[in-house]
Please model this.
Amino acid sequence: MFLKQHFYHQHIRKAIIAFGTIFNQITVQRLNANGEIAQSVRVPLAYAPKDKLLTRVQAVPGTNQGSVSTILPRIGFEITGLTHTPERRISYIQKNKAIGSTSDDMPNSVRAQYVSAPYDLSISLYVAAKNQDDGLQILEQILVLFNPSLEIQSTDNYIDWTSLSVVYLDDVNWSSRSIPVGTENPIDIATLTFKIPIWISSPIK
Model:
């Protein structure tokens, strides 16, 4: 079958990049005693699991409230699952066809591709903050975007229908912990769970 032909459309990678761009402009503001803005901080974003975020805090020499404030808040996210969704599947023997679909084609050449396979991509996003107010500022800027979903496009190719998708916010959990264990250094962690329906395409022939 077509597995003898190498192909890589980067569908999962493009979905992850599009997901990350949703959260790369979030800021936190801190006020002085007069209620004026004393500091505005853009929240760093990285593809990283929760443990890696917390390890970053532990790695700071002599971790204390002052040193933690220099590296928090932060946002990390990671893929947590990929599930086939047969209810969205189209007949697997159906093909999409195009005539002269690339600049290298002859004017009347025909290119074909089997229909794409549907999957749900699960992503967890972690918001780490040194205090509750920082965490709540970040959460409000995120939650308002999802009511309950947000449309994304992973490429600028207007004929690539697989680049269009929707991000669904499924769940929000909040916890507080001490890092390192046994110290009085609370870190608020919010975990948001998202689902993105995507399509995995076969090679074009």
The mean pLDDT is 79.
